[in-house]
Amino acid sequence: MRTQAGSISGAILHATGRFVRLADGTLVIEIELTDALEWRLPPTMTLHFDDGTTTTIDVDTTRSTRAGAIEAGMQVRIVCPTVRAGTITLAVATHGMMLVIRP
Fold it and tell me: CATH no. for residue 68?
């Protein structure tokens, strides 16, 4: 499977996502799929910052894409409230498959 800028290799989805920070500190990660995918929303994300630090944060399941079949051309959205300031270089989650997203 290929995503906009990534692929699934075994049980790992490598993707390039759009990272948007809202005024209240919420981080929204959007990934556009080019092939269908059985999506499973991860409960947490581990964020890697350009200063070498990492933090694990909860995913807001009420504002993120629910688990289920996602068709090609659709987006999945992962919403993480109250993310600290800083430049994110990588977001990683594991829930059924490993999800590796770069901005």
Answer: 2.60.40
Mean pLDDT to the nearest integer, 19-34: 91
Determine contact, residues 46/55, Cβ cutoff 8 Å.
Answer: yes
Q: How confident is the model at residue 12 (pLDDT cuts 50, 70, 90)?
A: confident
Mean pLDDT of 70-81: 91
Taking alpha carbons only, the member of 25, 26, 42, 49 closest to residue 76 is 42
Residues 14, 6 contacting (CB under 8 angstroms): yes
Domain total for the chain? 1
Q: Measured between alpha carbons, how far is residue 60 from residues 28, 29, 45 in Å?
A: 10, 12, 11
